[in-house]
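Journal club prep — side note

Before the paper discussion, L.F. wants everyone to see what a predicted structure for a comparable chain looks like in token form. Sequence:
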Amino acid sequence: MLYTIRLQEMEFRAYHGCYDLEQIVGNRFVVELTITTELGAVADEDAVEKAVNYLTVYEIVREVMRIKCRTIERVAQNIIHAVKEQFPQIMEVECSVAKLAPPLGGKVGRVSVVLKE
């Protein structure tokens, strides 16, 4: 049986962006993950040690968000790769990275990308 873990509305201050100023002053970002994995013995044995630990997943996302990138596409890709490296039992990760109030010359609430691997 498969199950899904969702980490929603993780907000970070980070320094991603194509403009040099964005990499200096930073911005607010929201990250969301949907992880699909095999349930296995997690529920039957109530075995937390066999589960994808979402505290660890959050810490991975936090660390990846500290690495400056020019594109949020790269940020999302880095998050997916880091999470899958830590938890090889993961079958699929969908990652959304949104930049809040992006500097586009007008009022825009957020711009986001979604990658799935």
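L.F.'s comment for the group: Helices lie at 20-25, 41-44, 54-65, 72-86. Keep this in mind when we get to the figures.
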